[in-house]
Design brief:
Elements: H1 2-17, E1 22-23, H2 26-58, H3 66-80, H4 82-94, H5 99-102, H6 107-118, H7 120-132, H8 137-144, H9 152-163, H10 172-215, H11 218-221, E2 229-230
Helix pairs in contact: 1-2, 2-3, 2-4, 2-10, 3-10, 4-6, 4-7, 4-10, 6-7, 7-10
Length: 232
Amino acid sequence: MPHLKIYARKGLNALQSGSKTFPGPAVEIYAADVTERVSELDNALTALRLALGFVMDLGSQSALDPDIYRYHYENFVLRVVGFVDRAHRLVGSALLMDKAKFESVGGNRFVTKQVKTNYPDIHAALQGVTQAVESYKGPRNELIHSAAYTSRELGLFQSIRHFGLDTGDIDVDELARGYFSGGATEIALTIARLVKTLANLLDALHPLFLIAVDHDNEHLKKKSAPEGTDKS
């Protein structure tokens, strides 16, 4: 954290003075890079919690719209699978891997191969993140190829709403509330699993962070500075 504070202060001073670059030794650049990767995961969790809040609020609305539910659920599905990529990129940065390789297509496989033998705890933690969202890969791929998310129940609610079908004494809104509530529970449980697996990953990486920051070793000195930074 001290290295990150120094780095941030330098960046702010450079911004204030209009400078395009600022000096940053390897250990500060490393701290900033890893922190940025962690922030990406934290921001993604915030987005998932927002999606959860929107779905939970649907149950209290007087007019229940299945299209709104589908919109927020699709947003959740598209975002949740991205945790796997972000987690692998965090590991790639923490272990000073070649950024061109771990950020490219096939980058996750590259990272997994690197840690499988030498860092079994990190490998297991990455597998945990992957497994936490595995069930959403199929729906995510369908959404990417322009197939809207649907289910038997959602299709019924949409047909009744769009065509104004008479359902007699069946309380469709009550059924929809139950369905939306089930979706909210599913999202909440998935977020909880992700929080747990990400905590495991950070715990596995923690010894590496300590070594890097405490010793400022030669591996860090070989790290390339990000744009806007002069490595010194």
